[in-house]
Design goal:
The protein has about 350 residues and is α+β, with helices and mostly antiparallel strands. It has helices spanning about 15, 30-55, 75-90, 100-105, 125-140, 255-265, 315-330, 345-350, and strands at about 1-5, 20, 65-70, 95, 115-120, 125, 145, 150-155, 160-165, 170-175, 175-180, 200-210, 220-225, 225-230, 235-240, 275-285, 295, 300-305.
Length: about 350
């Protein structure tokens, strides 16, 4: 197996993410299939993390404190409650906590709050360690990773994939091609426009604050109005993330940083004393319906695994397992069946 990457391996959305495994607290009406996919992947995460540790020697730091969705005001509480009615119909394990119970879990929260929704099964991993572990595991299994070699197009002959053509014109022969180019997936040529996955870049600005690792301000992942905060074991506090339809713009803006810092400060006032350790921009691969594109392509030998938007880290185990079964054993996992490219095609074209 050979993996081509337009940059350094794992330096795109995987590097920029916050590593949240939030299948429950983010569930919204109309996303029933996506919620089911996320819950399936959540259940696979413990074994997946253990396997990566065994193969790579890297602990991806699967933390199981759960997630709090914070309500600072009665309006915040009403919004959470509205979504909670749908989430409970799906049987998701969510619990409303009073202001006192919330503060007992996180004593550094703002002085005035309405309460929080507790999601005990929405955990987190260190996404950057995940990328490192995956690379080592893949190379140990015999994969070759070729960095800074962007793919220009998918090569085909008589309706079958024959390989890829690199940006410099080099032809690489292959019987199987998996299009997994994230936010750049649609730009790879060789397919007709309607067969290119409708994936666009969704810009997100983020920052990291540096806490004292021995005295963390937070233990849980915290969804606050306007920002999320993710504490790491090394003391970093990840704050994200803006959602901007600005193509591949990579600028850190004053407005973006102000929005995140103000929202984080309103939830956890003590952050104002923390140094800013890092700022960055990522580009989520968002499909037309913000759900992944998984499954067979329009020609023999081509497969899609892209468009994961905000759920790329969460969906890593199910994507890896389901796509491997499909490619190697020709078995379509029912969990990914709703996410084929055909959902975007006119009924006749999809047949």
């Amino acid at each position: 197996m050979t993996v081509f990457d337009r940059g350094a391996a794992g330096s795109g959305a995987s590097h920029a993410a916050a590593g949240m495994l939030a299948a429950c607290c983010e569930a919204e009406p109309g996303e029933e299939d996506l919620v089911a996919l996320g819950r399936d992947s959540q259940r696979r995460w413990p074994a997946f993390a253990e396997e990566l540790l065994r193969l790579s020697g890297i602990d991806v730091e699967l933390r199981r404190e759960g997630t709090l969705v914070l309500a600072l005001t009665a309006d915040d509480q009403a919004e959470i409650d509205h979504r909670l009615q749908f989430q409970r119909k799906l049987g998701l394990p969510l619990e409303w906590l009073s202001a006192g119970a919330t503060r007992a879990r996180e004593p550094h929260l703002a002085g005035k709050l309405a309460g929080a929704l507790f999601s005990p099964e929405d955990h987190q991993v260190d996404n950057r360690k995940l990328a490192q572990a995956l690379r080592i595991a893949a190379e140990t299994a015999g994969a070759t990773i070729r960095e800074f070699e962007p793919v220009r197009e998918i090569a085909m002959h008589n309706g079958r994939t024959t390989g890829v053509v690199l940006e410099d014109g080099t032809i690489f022969d292959a019987d199987i091609v998996v299009l997994a180019a994230g936010a750049w997936s649609r730009s790879i040529r060789g397919l007709s426009q309607d067969r290119r996955p409708p994936v666009r870049p969704v810009k997100g600005q983020m920052l990291a604050l540096q806490m004292d690792a021995a005295h963390s301000l937070l233990e849980h992942v915290l969804w606050a109005p306007g920002a999320y905060l993710v504490p790491r074991r090394d003391g970093r506090l990840i704050v994200g993330g803006t959602v901007e339809e600005k193509g591949f713009d990579s600028a850190i803006t004053a407005g973006g940083m102000l929005t995140l810092l103000e929202a984080a400060w309103r939830a956890v006032p003590a952050i104002e004393e923390l140094p800013i350790a890092e700022t960055w921009v990522g580009h989520r691969p968002g499909s037309r319906d913000d759900a992944p594109v998984l499954g067979r392509g329009p020609c023999e030998g081509l497969f899609y695994a892209t468009g994961h938007h905000r759920n790329g880290i969460l969906l890593t185990p199910i994507t890896a397992d389901a796509m491997a079964r499909l490619i190697l054993d020709d078995v379509l996992d029912p969990a990914i069946q709703p996410f084929g490219l055909e959902r975007f095609l006119p009924a006749r074209a999809a047949e």
